[in-house]
Each structure stands twice: as C-alpha cells, then as structure tokens.
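Tokens as discussed.
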C-alpha cells in the first residue's frame, strides 16, 4: 500500500465537529474557538507522511481523502477539506486542466468560452472526474471521521469560474464595458456552483467554503456591490449548509457588505488588517476564519505562529488557521504550531 489512511489514532479531543459547527454559528453561552481552514493544507511533508502525492491526490479519491484527513490526525484541526485545487469544477465543465505536480498547483489552461451563449453545463457534470472524485473523497472522510471532525466542501462562485472559462482579462474588461453580459455569464454559471454544493452536502459535507476570488486588485468595491453582493446573497440562501466565503487579498472595503449577505462566515486574508480590525469591520454576527499568514507559515517560527494564534483568539476569530491554501513548501512544524496543546 502506497499511502496511509489511519483513523485509529485520532486526537484525544473527540468533539471537533461540534466545536467547529458551534464556532461558525457563533452560538452557545461561551464563545467557541475552533481550528482549521477551508482551503488547502497540503505541503510536501504531509505528502511524504501519507504517501499521497500531487497530482494523483487531485484525481484519486482515496489519496485525496488520505491527505485531507491529516488536517485532523496530524495537525489537530477541527475541520478537514479535500478540494486542494481551484480547478475541479472547471475540469468537469470542460477546461483542459494541467494538474501540476508535487511542487505545482493545477492550472485551468486556455479559456473555452467567448460569449455567454457558449456556456454549456454538461448534463453529467457531477459524474465527471473533476466533480466525482472530490464527492467520493467527501463521503470517505465523512464515513471515516463520523463526528470526530467536521468535513468542509468547496465550490467556486460564478465570478471566479468565469476567469477559467473566459480568461481573467477578457472577463474583467467585460465587467466594465458590458455589465449586462457579465450578469448573463454569472447567472448561467450559477447552476455549476449550486449543483456541486448540493452534491457535496449530500455526500456528507457539514459546510461549504465558497471561494470567489474577488480580490481587490481584480474587483473594486463598486463591482463587488454591483455583481457579487447579490450573487453571494443568493448562494447564502440556496446552499443548504453554512457557507464560508473566501476572498484573497485586502477586503477591508467589503467586509461590511459581506456581513449583509447572510453568509455564515468569512475566510479572510491577513493583508486586510489585524484580527481586531477585521472583527470590528465584520460586526458581531459574521463568523471569521483565518488569522495565520501564509508568509509567516512559510518563513517564520512555531513560536511566532503560536503568538499569532493567541492574537487571533483574543480578537474573537472563530476558526483559527491558515488564511489561504498554504504554500507547498510550508514547514510542517509551523502548521503544527497553529493548534494549542489540548491535554
Ligand atoms: Zn485565498
């Protein structure tokens, strides 16, 4: 057997799933702090430990689940998430994805559509490998973890999917020149997000990370308000599980808008500001995930990571973990410093 998939040595703390769900609901008499992330935790050392390597772990459900499980069994996180790349639904829709390797994340290849009328959602979307493999990995994780840890799914919003299908530049130019066309694209891609999210919930996902890369340099605050706020409101309503939005980069100009969407949580990037500032912008209702910078995970020490975790906890960050998909060269010792010793 080339990779290991043990659950017998789960950490002593058995209530991780409940802890995570209470944290993102911001409920309970005492506030709950959970640990983890809805984006990739994979680094080279975790691939070495499991024997499940990129790119196979994007395309083989057992390997994908084995690698995701280390979020709980090795790192002690309260949540695991198996969709490590940004290309799964894009592959299922028809992009010619290059799945990369142990040192390279996948890329979605050349654009495949020019006009909104070109958009065709394959009737067998969910049974194509791009969707079927992560769906199977989610159900494997759910079966093997039970209540020991939460399982998070991941989908991309229409805005980010359009980058793959139309090309980033062309799509963003269109959003300025022809807003109606942009709205058409967003509407026509919405079923991909909704179908994939519903299938993930059916497979056992407890919550969904909604990644919509409306980074500030690619999408100004007015554009967010015009195109994405209504879309995210709709997704919050139609996805039948707690949804955590992920946006890279500085989002200080839109956190207050995100707080009005009805989404359960927001996974923020430390470029936005200090944990206390982000909590102030988010207000009391929106759960917050993140607080540990990727730069520090890559370059600093376990002591610095532990100090940042304490600062995030003090500022009422509900789920403390990496701010985004961790770099593949991240030292495992730094990832291990995120969760405090619980004995
Ligand atoms: Zn990100």
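Sequence:
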């Amino acid at each position: 057997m080339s990779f290991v998939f043990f659950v017998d040595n789960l950490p002593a703390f058995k209530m991780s799933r409940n802890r995570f769900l209470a944290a993102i609901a911001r409920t309970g008499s005492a506030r709950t702090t959970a640990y983890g992330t809805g984006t990739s935790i994979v680094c080279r050392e975790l691939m070495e430990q499991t024997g499940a390597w990129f790119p196979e772990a994007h395309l083989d459900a057992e390997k994908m689940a084995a690698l995701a499980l280390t979020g709980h069994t090795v790192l002690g996180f309260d949540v695991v998430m198996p969709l490590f790349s940004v290309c799964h639904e894009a592959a299922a829709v028809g992009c010619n994805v290059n799945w990369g390797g142990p040192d390279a994340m996948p890329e979605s290849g050349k654009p495949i559509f020019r006009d909104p009328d070109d958009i065709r959602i394959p009737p067998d979307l969910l049974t194509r490998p791009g969707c079927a493999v992560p769906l199977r990995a989610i159900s494997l994780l759910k079966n093997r973890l039970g209540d020991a840890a939460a399982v998070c799914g991941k989908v991309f919003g229409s805005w980010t999917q359009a980058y793959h299908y139309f090309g980033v530049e062309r799509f963003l130019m269109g959003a300025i020149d022809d807003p109606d066309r942009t709205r058409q694209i967003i509407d026509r891609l919405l079923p991909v997000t909704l179908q994939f999210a519903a299938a993930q919930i059916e497979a056992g996902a407890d919550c969904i990370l909604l990644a919509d890369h409306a980074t500030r340099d690619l999408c100004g605050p007015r554009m967010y308000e015009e195109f994405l706020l209504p879309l995210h409101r709709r997704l919050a309503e139609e996805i039948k599980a707690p949804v955590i939005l992920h946006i890279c980069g500085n989002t200080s100009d839109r956190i207050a808008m995100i707080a009005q969407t009805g989404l359960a949580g927001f996974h923020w990037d430390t470029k936005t500001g200090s944990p206390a500032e982000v909590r102030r912008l988010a207000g009391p209702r929106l759960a917050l995930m993140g607080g540990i910078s990727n730069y520090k995970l890559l370059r600093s020490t376990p002591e610095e990571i532990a100090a940042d975790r304490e600062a995030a906890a003090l500022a009422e960050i509900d789920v403390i973990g990496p701010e985004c998909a961790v770099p593949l060269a991240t030292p495992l010792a730094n990832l291990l410093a995120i969760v405090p010793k619980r004995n």
